[in-house]
Amino acid sequence: MVPPMADHHPADRRHPRRVLRHLIDSTTRLAGDASGPLAILVLALVLLPLATPRVYATDEVQYYVYLRSLRFDGDLNFANEYRRFAELNPNSGIAGSLLQPNRIRAATGLYGNIAPVGSAIMWAPWFLLADAATHAAAWAGVPIAADGYSWPYLVSVCYASMAYGVLGLLLCYRLVRRLVGTFAATTSVVTIWLATPLVFYMYVQMPFAHATGFFLTSAFLSIWHESRPARSWRAWVALALVGALMTMTREQLGLFLAIPLVEALGGYLRWLRHPDRGTGWVWLLRRHIVFAGVLFIGLTPQLAAYQVLNGAPRPAGEVSGKLNLCSPHAIDTLVDYDPRPTRWCVADAQYLARTPAWSRGALLWSPVLLPALVGLWWLRRRDAGLFAALIGGFALQVYINGAFGTTWHLSGAFGFRRLIECTPIFVVGLAMLIERARPALGRLPLLALAVAFVAWNAGLVLNATLFNDVTQLRRGLSWPELWRWQLEAPLNLIGRLGELLFDRCRLLENC
Fold first, then answer.
1. Which of 189, 263, 351, 510 might form a disulfide with 347, Cβ 3.0–4.6 angstroms?
2. pLDDT tens across 482-498, in order?
3. H/E element, 80
């Protein structure tokens, strides 16, 4: 029996061209949606030969030693790890900082560790896989030390960090693709990635917490945004778990938790104004209690580490002692045109500027951030809730960096790394600007501007690592010498391209 044709739309029988056109349009749309993530993945692989997987200096070591000490010693006594890394990297400053007597906690007798535990938790599967592979290799007669210091262990956490960075980029693309087209989304993600310090901390100083923290912040904002307005129990649990990991990876990222907090307060205010509309306060309270409970449980590894190391479930004095809550250097975080503390903030001598003007602001290191922040303005009518969340989250990160009054300038670091986790915010802003400007300017001028921003950052990376005294540029942007360094960078690169690609161990220690 021939099945009836009533299940098919009449137009499909009468106009087969419409069916073909629909198939072509659907395929094109799917290919367009896939082209952005594919471009990101291909570019990540293209950059892979530039990776420098090593655990070298003080910050990297502090993030890593949780894994090594717990796996091989079963404790959080890092004395032997600090000494061993100081022997491996005698010029890294470990002996002069981490092994000083003032780093021993009076309450516990243990050397401190100001790095939180989140990165170690996120790296743990990769580290344990490397441990298993190393033991298997030893069983097979391959002479690799299964001690937590050999290259499989160090490489595993470095590439874990890079992989999380790539996942964060894909999440940013997913987030912004809901707002703009494929071209604007892809161009924005790639430009912010390559024109800011994010690419440096994904491929050069890999075992820092920034790439992992960026992934978790992207996941947190994505879950929050995509689960609005009626968030399920499962979404609340996921938001709390990711929020806990995010906070344990870099403590200042806990300020992003203010986004669901403000959202919750807004829900209660709406109920007070219109109790007969929408959901009741009991419905809201139950979900918020679940969120708070899961968040607290998720934070217990960090609280336990604080207790063991510091004798109390709170951060070490090296962290809290830097804070001046009136944030004397919030403006300097963006543009340090006058790096003295702001006039309205009473600050003692330790917060006075020790860097020249126009040398450390985030907008100077990464000029692409300015149009990205401007572009957020066009989000306010498209999605007022997301606009408020992104602006508020960014403002809190600027505030907390300025509140670290003694280290706001990040001297010794490449770029303004404490804002890397704001990358999703910058991606959305730049995408909105590109989407608005494309009809008037066309694609080529926008791509040319993107290339210029990327080239500026690439020049800074090369000058900070290869062509000039590393400490010179990392102390701050030095004008007008920087213009000459940037113009000379392409020529210098040609002369050392072979070393950069095939013999980087000549350029780096502990490579």
1. 351
2. 888 888 888 888 877 77
3. helix 79-88
